[in-house]
Amino acid sequence: MPDPASPSSDSPETSRRDAADARGVPMRPFVQNVGNTRALHFSQKEIQSRMSLLNPDALDLEYTRMMMGFLLFNAQPAHITMVGLGGGSLPKFCHRYLPDATIDVIEIDADVIALREAFMVPPDSARFRVIHADAAAYMLQSQPAADVLLLDGFGEGGIPDALCTAAFYAACRDALTPDGVMVVNFHVNHPDHHDYMDRVRAAFGAAMIEVVDDDMTNSVVFAYKGDMPEDLGALALVRPPTLSKDAWRQLMPTFRVIAATMELR
């Protein structure tokens, strides 16, 4: 999800990219290091993904920790499908801390995939793979059903139109196991945000919850194919036995926020 970019010195590379942006020329993704962080950009104005160079597998942005709230519902998913590789924050975290899960990451932009080593994304293996494909078409194919579907596909300017249609969300629901959950990252101030929410609701009914971060920037929606769990408040206070203490320390403060939102329903 794009975040406002941090100020940095004007290098020749920065000037060339800003000039290209001003001419309306499509820009290739690029990497920028600031202090102990490495960020993926499509433009100087927004950060698409950010990684701590001191702890590359940590979730550096709050919305990514919020998206991991699916663990309150299913702490041991067998199959996770993700839309949008970006800098690989969510794939890396799940690869490290959910060792029994098979993880498929769908990414349409070959230039983004080409940067995977810069962000220390694991190589493809029997349980982890990055698939170069259009997620809108991929969801219509016959694929193994996912226990968890994470939607974080962004380009310059926001979510591509094909990834926020009513038909796409319906296809995502069909791609889930009977008790599966879809997690979507939205920008809460986007002019079409309410329309996007209505489209998710059309596919999943009332079995959904929206959690907004503290700075009112990101909206993370959890949509359940089955019945929405009612005991997330209690679960958020107890570390699942399958989750390491390190992962729990990172996620627990955010899980409490999700639990508090549930209590207000």
Tell me about this structure.
With 265 residues, this protein is α/β, with parallel strands linked by helices. The protein folds into 2 domains: 50 residues, no CATH class; 202 residues, Vaccinia Virus protein VP39 (Rossmann fold, 3-Layer(aba) Sandwich), CATH 3.40.50. Helix content is 29%, strand content 25%. The strands form 2 sheets. The chain has a 7-stranded mixed beta sheet, sandwiched between helices. It has a 4-stranded antiparallel beta sheet with strand order 1-4-3-2. Strand 8, helix 6 and strand 9 form a beta-alpha-beta unit. The protein is globular, with a radius of gyration of 18 Å. The N terminus is likely disordered.
Features:
globular; 4-stranded antiparallel β-sheet; alpha/beta; Rossmann fold; 2 domains; 7-stranded mixed β-sheet
Blueprint (SSEs and pairs):
Elements: E1 3-4, H1 12-22, E2 30-34, E3 37-43, E4 46-52, H2 62-67, E5 79-83, H3 89-97, E6 102-107, H4 110-113, E7 128-132, H5 135-138, E8 146-151, H6 166-174, E9 176-187, H7 193-204, E10 208-212, E11 218-224, H8 232-235, H9 245-263
Helix pairs in contact: 6-7
Provide a count of the helices.
9
Q: Could you state the CATH homologous superfamily of the largest domain?
A: Vaccinia Virus protein VP39
Biggest sheet overview: 7 strands, mixed
Class from helix and strand fractions: alpha/beta
Number of β-strand runs: 11
User: Poorly predicted ranges (pLDDT <50, ≥5 residues)?
Assistant: 1-23
Strand content: 25-35%
How far is it from the N-terminal to the C-terminal residue, by CA?
26 Å
Q: Work out the helicity level.
A: 25-40%
Strand numbers in spatial order across the main sheet: 7-6-5-8-9-11-10
User: At the third CATH level, what is the topology name of the largest domain?
Assistant: Rossmann fold
Mean pLDDT: 85
Q: Tell me the series of helices and strands, N- to C-terminal.
A: EHEEEHEHEHEHEHEHEEHH
CATH architectural label of the largest domain: 3-Layer(aba) Sandwich
CATH class of the largest domain: Alpha Beta
Shape: globular
What is the number of independent domains? 2
The whole-angstrom Rg is: 18 Å
